[in-house]
């Protein structure tokens, strides 16, 4: 781990980690917002990712939505990387009070983290739009439960991923929990995000603690506010 970061962590009692796509890409999950992701979507599906992952597209082109969703947002073999593992360890040690993530892959929980605020939901949770019954990811991915790739509940309703689509609002309870954690933190570590996706990026304005750390391969709009900026791989920087 970077020596400067280690010193800040040692000095902290209530750390919150705010993470974006860069945390997941190091586990082999591609960022659909990247140039290659945009190009791939247009070439293979004929639409931009933002279009296919919108609520209106989900409603009007349900089969195409699930085709793109299953082929690009589900990564069953992905494993937690060094950043996920270190954060889980910091929580177990009582140093970290919460993780706020824009990712939907469930890797923080897979690494052992408990207090995770998933701003954009999770592919691990799914529910019937008709009766509300909950289903896991295995059910959604099993062709036996699907018609042309669309998963159906026993009652006949469509099983929708608990993922926040474009045009949908963030969950109020999740946002409130994230705001509360960030406002209580003495250290906020931001990693793997360029801080351009709102309203999530605006949550850092609730931080009034001692140390603000930014770890990202590229510069961000908040670099000037940080006590420590590290332009490098988050897994490499966070590795114990």
Automatic annotation (TrEMBL):
<dbReference type="GO" id="GO:0005737">
    <property type="term" value="C:cytoplasm"/>
</dbReference>
<dbReference type="InterPro" id="IPR028628">
    <property type="entry name" value="Sirtuin_class_U"/>
</dbReference>
<protein>
    <recommendedName>
        <fullName>NAD-dependent protein deacetylase</fullName>
        <ecNumber>2.3.1.286</ecNumber>
    </recommendedName>
</protein>
<feature type="binding site">
    <location>
        <position position="32"/>
    </location>
    <ligand>
        <name>NAD(+)</name>
    </ligand>
</feature>
<feature type="binding site">
    <location>
        <position position="25"/>
    </location>
    <ligand>
        <name>NAD(+)</name>
    </ligand>
</feature>
<dbReference type="GO" id="GO:0070403">
    <property type="term" value="F:NAD+ binding"/>
</dbReference>
<feature type="domain" description="Deacetylase sirtuin-type">
    <location>
        <begin position="1"/>
        <end position="240"/>
    </location>
</feature>
<feature type="binding site">
    <location>
        <position position="155"/>
    </location>
    <ligand>
        <name>Zn(2+)</name>
    </ligand>
</feature>
<feature type="binding site">
    <location>
        <position position="102"/>
    </location>
    <ligand>
        <name>NAD(+)</name>
    </ligand>
</feature>
<feature type="binding site">
    <location>
        <position position="104"/>
    </location>
    <ligand>
        <name>nicotinamide</name>
    </ligand>
</feature>
<feature type="binding site">
    <location>
        <position position="128"/>
    </location>
    <ligand>
        <name>Zn(2+)</name>
    </ligand>
</feature>
<feature type="binding site">
    <location>
        <position position="104"/>
    </location>
    <ligand>
        <name>NAD(+)</name>
    </ligand>
</feature>
<dbReference type="InterPro" id="IPR003000">
    <property type="entry name" value="Sirtuin"/>
</dbReference>
<keyword id="KW-0862">Zinc</keyword>
<dbReference type="GO" id="GO:0017136">
    <property type="term" value="F:histone deacetylase activity, NAD-dependent"/>
</dbReference>
<dbReference type="Pfam" id="PF02146">
    <property type="entry name" value="SIR2"/>
</dbReference>
<comment type="function">
    <text>NAD-dependent protein deacetylase which modulates the activities of several enzymes which are inactive in their acetylated form.</text>
</comment>
<dbReference type="GO" id="GO:0008270">
    <property type="term" value="F:zinc ion binding"/>
</dbReference>
<keyword id="KW-0808">Transferase</keyword>
<feature type="binding site">
    <location>
        <position position="193"/>
    </location>
    <ligand>
        <name>NAD(+)</name>
    </ligand>
</feature>
<dbReference type="InterPro" id="IPR026591">
    <property type="entry name" value="Sirtuin_cat_small_dom_sf"/>
</dbReference>
<feature type="binding site">
    <location>
        <position position="131"/>
    </location>
    <ligand>
        <name>Zn(2+)</name>
    </ligand>
</feature>
<feature type="binding site">
    <location>
        <position position="153"/>
    </location>
    <ligand>
        <name>Zn(2+)</name>
    </ligand>
</feature>
<feature type="binding site">
    <location>
        <position position="33"/>
    </location>
    <ligand>
        <name>NAD(+)</name>
    </ligand>
</feature>
<feature type="binding site">
    <location>
        <position position="234"/>
    </location>
    <ligand>
        <name>NAD(+)</name>
    </ligand>
</feature>
<feature type="binding site">
    <location>
        <position position="21"/>
    </location>
    <ligand>
        <name>NAD(+)</name>
    </ligand>
</feature>
<keyword id="KW-0963">Cytoplasm</keyword>
<comment type="similarity">
    <text>Belongs to the sirtuin family. Class U subfamily.</text>
</comment>
<feature type="binding site">
    <location>
        <position position="105"/>
    </location>
    <ligand>
        <name>nicotinamide</name>
    </ligand>
</feature>
<feature type="binding site">
    <location>
        <position position="146"/>
    </location>
    <ligand>
        <name>Zn(2+)</name>
    </ligand>
</feature>
<dbReference type="InterPro" id="IPR050134">
    <property type="entry name" value="NAD-dep_sirtuin_deacylases"/>
</dbReference>
<feature type="binding site">
    <location>
        <position position="216"/>
    </location>
    <ligand>
        <name>NAD(+)</name>
    </ligand>
</feature>
<feature type="binding site">
    <location>
        <position position="32"/>
    </location>
    <ligand>
        <name>nicotinamide</name>
    </ligand>
</feature>
<feature type="active site" description="Proton acceptor">
    <location>
        <position position="120"/>
    </location>
</feature>
<dbReference type="InterPro" id="IPR029035">
    <property type="entry name" value="DHS-like_NAD/FAD-binding_dom"/>
</dbReference>
<feature type="binding site">
    <location>
        <position position="194"/>
    </location>
    <ligand>
        <name>NAD(+)</name>
    </ligand>
</feature>
<feature type="binding site">
    <location>
        <position position="105"/>
    </location>
    <ligand>
        <name>NAD(+)</name>
    </ligand>
</feature>
<keyword id="KW-0479">Metal-binding</keyword>
<keyword id="KW-0520">NAD</keyword>
<dbReference type="InterPro" id="IPR026590">
    <property type="entry name" value="Ssirtuin_cat_dom"/>
</dbReference>
<feature type="binding site">
    <location>
        <position position="120"/>
    </location>
    <ligand>
        <name>NAD(+)</name>
    </ligand>
</feature>
């Amino acid at each position: 781990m970077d020596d400067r970061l280690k010193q800040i962590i040692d000095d902290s009692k209530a750390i919150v980690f705010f993470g974006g796509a860069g945390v997941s890409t190091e586990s082999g999950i591609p960022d659909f917002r990247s140039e290659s992701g945009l190009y791939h979507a247009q070439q293979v599906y004929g639409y931009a990712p933002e279009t296919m992952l919108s609520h209106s597209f989900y409603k009007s082109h349900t089969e195409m939505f699930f085709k793109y969703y299953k082929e690009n947002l589900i990564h069953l073999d992905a494993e937690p990387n060094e950043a996920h593992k270190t954060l889980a360890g910091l929580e177990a040690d009582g140093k970290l009070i919460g993780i706020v993530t824009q990712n939907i892959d469930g890797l923080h929980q897979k690494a052992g983290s408990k207090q995770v605020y998933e701003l954009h939901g999770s592919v691990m949770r799914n529910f019937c739009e008709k009766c509300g019954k909950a289903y896991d990811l295995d059910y959604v991915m099993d062709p036996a439960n699907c018609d042309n790739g669309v998963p159906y509940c026993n009652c006949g309703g469509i099983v929708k991923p608990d993922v926040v689509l474009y045009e949908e609002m963030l969950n109020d309870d999740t946002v409130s929990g994230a705001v509360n954690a960030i406002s209580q933190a003495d250290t906020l570590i931001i990693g793997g995000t360029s801080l351009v996706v709102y309203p999530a990026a605006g949550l850092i304005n609730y931080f009034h603690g001692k140390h603000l750390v930014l770890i990202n391969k590229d510069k961000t709009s908040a670099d000037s506010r940080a006590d420590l900026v590290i332009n490098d791989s988050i897994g490499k920087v966070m590795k114990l």
